[in-house]
Amino acid sequence: MTVLFTPSAELLPGYVAALERGWSPDNLRPQAAAEQLALIGQDPDAFLAHQNDLEGNGPPVTLVDGSVAPRLPCLRRWIHKDGFAGRISLRWQPGTEALPPICLGHVGYAVVPWRRREGLASAALIELLPSAHALGMSHVDLATDPDNPASIGVIKNAGGLLVEEFEAPPQVGGGAHLLFRIELQASITSTT
């Protein structure tokens, strides 16, 4: 089941409708919805062009505490099945699989509330893994709140194994988090 699509003008109305309904593509910053609506209103073509920033040349990223950090290269896909359902992103640092402390994982995803529990996040994560492998990555790390059984299930469904529990830095909201890792070669082999 293909659920991932490159952000496009054709799919943009569904994305805008989700933002207008109160969904935010940033689980930590609900205000990101209004910021994205403003960007789309100013220049929808530029907004779409920045959805995939394979060089990390976009504007700095605003963190939960209001500070900013350099943007990492990223690949974004929209989750779409019978309408817009969410977004998943893959981010990395060139030349290493390590991430800066303020980036809790290689993959982040957000499904609109009215489409949760349909298996879309699991399908999207599994579908994204070959793209990470194609970029030369041997694994991807994902972090989630220990009180989020839905997200833990999504990660485990894609082959994620718990690495550790850690405390997130205050710039990204702090608090206890679980770090999972998906080994890409094993994961890709088991899903094909």
What features would you describe in this structure?
The structure is a single chain. The chain is α+β, with helices and mostly antiparallel strands. The protein is 30% helix and 24% strand. It has helices at 12-20, 32-42, 44-49, 120-134, 149-157, 184-191, and strands at 4-5, 61-62, 68-69, 74-80, 84-91, 107-111, 139-144, 161-167, 176-183. The protein has a four-stranded antiparallel β-sheet with strand order 1-4-5-6, with helices on both faces. A three-stranded antiparallel β-sheet has the order 7-9-8. The radius of gyration is 16 Å and the shape is globular. It starts with a strand and ends with a helix. The model has no long low-confidence stretch (mean pLDDT 92).
Extract low-pLDDT stretches: none
Rounded to the nearest angstrom, the radius of gyration is 16 Å
Q: Order of strands in the sheet with the most strands?
A: 1-4-5-6
Secondary-structure content class: alpha+beta
How far apart the termini lie comes to: 12 Å
Main beta sheet: strand number and arrangement?
4 strands, antiparallel
Following the backbone from N to C, one meets helices and strands in this order, namely EHHHEEEEEHEHEEH
Keyphrases for this structure?
192 residues, alpha+beta, 4-stranded antiparallel sheet, 3-stranded antiparallel sheet, 6 helices, globular
Kindly summarize this structure in a few lines.
With 192 residues, this protein is α+β, with helices and mostly antiparallel strands. The protein has helices at residues 12-20, 32-42, 44-49, 120-134, 149-157, 184-191, and strands at 4-5, 61-62, 68-69, 74-80, 84-91, 107-111, 139-144, 161-167, 176-183. The strands form three sheets. The protein has a four-stranded antiparallel β-sheet, sandwiched between helices.
